[in-house]
Design goal:
Length: 213
């Protein structure tokens, strides 16, 4: 099966994708991760998109489409993909369908994690990561856990891109360009809207129930 997971930045797409990947033996294709990897490896594309991503803009369709094609057409991933972060606009949605159709594949499930902007801001702005053990926590939601963190509070750092300005741009880009994609898919029988503000495990269980049918 192929799955698409939608949701604004901070909605928990990555976390939920990871759970589905483990349980259903799928491959998570996160275009955000692929692009960040290009930046990390300082490739030609990475150098070109570094500033744009750090400011919260969308990367050019041609670049992302080309990268995605490598996965969709790879036999290893055939009919076993969870798309996280793609498609992000109507052009990408049509590109995905034509890529899948021409390889006799289709989309089997679409999940839309709905989360209000206030919650997203809190989740992203409150995010702290321990430099020592890599654990992610939230200043607003996990106060006790942070206070008692075994590595000590000095190792807890905020990510450079978790700033107010970038979150606003990313959220606005999402609403402007990705909302029409949700409208495009919403009448399909395999489109499922999920309350993304619930606890991680509650969301995982809901998704699991749908996938198991
Ligand atoms: P994400 O990890 O999904 O939040 O993506 C991080 C950033 O990567 C986004 O803010 C965009 O700049 C870029 N990006 C990821 N996926 C796409 C896509 N499908 N189209 C254009 N830009 C993308």
């Amino acid at each position: 099966m192929n799955v698409i997971i939608f949701g604004p930045p901070g909605a928990g797409k990555g976390t939920q994708s990871q759970n589905i990947v483990n349980k259903y033996n799928l491959f998570q294709i996160s275009t955000g991760d692929i692009l960040r990897n290009e930046i990390k490896n300082k490739t030609e594309i990475g150098i070109k998109i570094d500033k744009l991503i750090s400011e919260g803009g969308f990367v050019n369709d041609e670049i992302v489409d080309e990268m995605l094609k490598n996965f969709v057409t790879n036999h290893k991933y055939r009919n076993r993909i969870i798309f996280d972060g793609y498609p992000r606009n109507i052009k990408q949605a049509k590109n995905l369908e034509s890529m899948l159709n021409s390889d006799n594949q289709s989309i089997n499930f679409i999940f839309n994690l709905k989360v209000k902007r206030e919650i997203i801001e809190k989740r992203i702005l409150g995010r702290v990561v321990c430099e020592k053990c890599n654990k992610t926590m939230n200043e607003y939601l996990n106060k006790d856990e942070i206070e008692n963190h075994e590595c000590g509070k000095n190792f807890l750092k905020k990510r450079k891109d978790d700033n107010h300005e970038t979150i606003v741009t990313r959220y606005d880009e999402y609403m402007k360009k990705t909302k029409p994609v949700l409208d495009y898919y919403s009448s399909r029988s395999y489109f499922h809207e999920i309350d993304g503000s619930e606890k991680i495990q509650v969301i995982t269980t809901k998704i699991d129930h749908i996938l198991r049918v």
